[in-house]
Amino acid sequence: MMKKFVIFGVAIAIVALVFSCSPALAAQKQIVMRLAETHAPDYPTTKADYEFARLVEERTGGRIKIEVYPSAQLGEEKAAIEAVQFGAIDFNRTSISPLSAFAPNLIALQMPYLYRDDEHMWKVLNGPIGENFLKSLDAFNLIGLGWYDGGTRHFYNSKKEIKSVSDLKGMKIRVQESKLMTDLVSFLGAVPTPMPFGEVYSALQTGVIDGAENNIPSYYSTSHYEVAKYITLDGHSRIPEIIIASKSSWNKLSKEDQEIIRQAAKDSTQYQIKLWKEFEKTAQEKTKKAGSIYTVLTPEALAGFQKAVQPMYDKLSPEVKEVISQIKNVK
User: Fold this and answer.
1) I want to staple 35 with a disulfide (CB 3.0 to 4.6 A). Which of 91, 103, 156, 256 is the partner?
2) Which domain holds residue 182?
3) Based on the domain organization, do 209 and 323 belong to the same domain?
4) Which of the residues in the chain have pLDDT under 50?
5) What is the pTM of this model?
6) Integer angstrom CA distances of residue 139 from 82, 92, 254, 255, 285
7) Which Pfam families does this entry report, sorted A to Z (predicted)?
8) How many DSSP H helices and E strands does the chain contain?
9) Is residue 304 a part of any domain in this protein?
10) What does the pLDDT read at residue 101?
């Protein structure tokens, strides 16, 4: 009798081992991946990150779960990009501005006064040009998944209305620590003043700087409108944002799961754009109500701004100039 029990126990153990090694059952084991986000949980891009994660979990039947870490919990943008390159983080939502330090060709998408309007930018990003840029990141151990809206950047200041490029002359304008932005402000005749974003409010308040530049939601959410009521809608920069994946993490996934994730990223774009437009509208309404003065440039005045930054285009490489030409020809 004891022998029968032993044989029965061994049989049960073998069956359990077979089932535990079954590919069908192993495939059900949940894969947990991490996504780094700089912005706060209620920011439009972060909400879109959550939508991206929701779509992936839903479409994989819960097999893949993407955990979103907002508020730079996994590091600021540059550090997060490096971590994604080395596989320490699986995904990152970032502006292409810091990403350009790793993939220099992205400069072509950030040039000043490049896009006629938002519609033009999205035709570029959602077409062959945008797809080629996503694929180009493969060479840097990154997988480009999809684009998000980073808004349109404008100049604002505490002194006066800016109605022409000559009105900017000599003004101290805060810029990001970026050669592109430094050159932009210099060619427009102002004095670029790099400083951390968190110091801008007090610098405007105390007169250390005369103005800054950013999108309207940031102008509102940072309360810069309280100390710089003049804002000129020149739209000098439309810098897209992007979702990237770690190539090493990506290669561990099946082709089917890769396609699900890629499509989920693209599908979350429209949701993000919708949230961004709503946020932008609310920010503009509230700042106007608080006393901000919005200046819309005449076509002639805008042409003056565009002409002033032409030297930035002249010194680009032939390869980048060709891409710029393709972008401008998109109808």
Assistant:
1) 91
2) 152-238+292-329
3) yes
4) 1-27
5) 0.85
6) 14, 17, 20, 19, 43
7) DctP
8) 15, 11
9) yes
10) 87
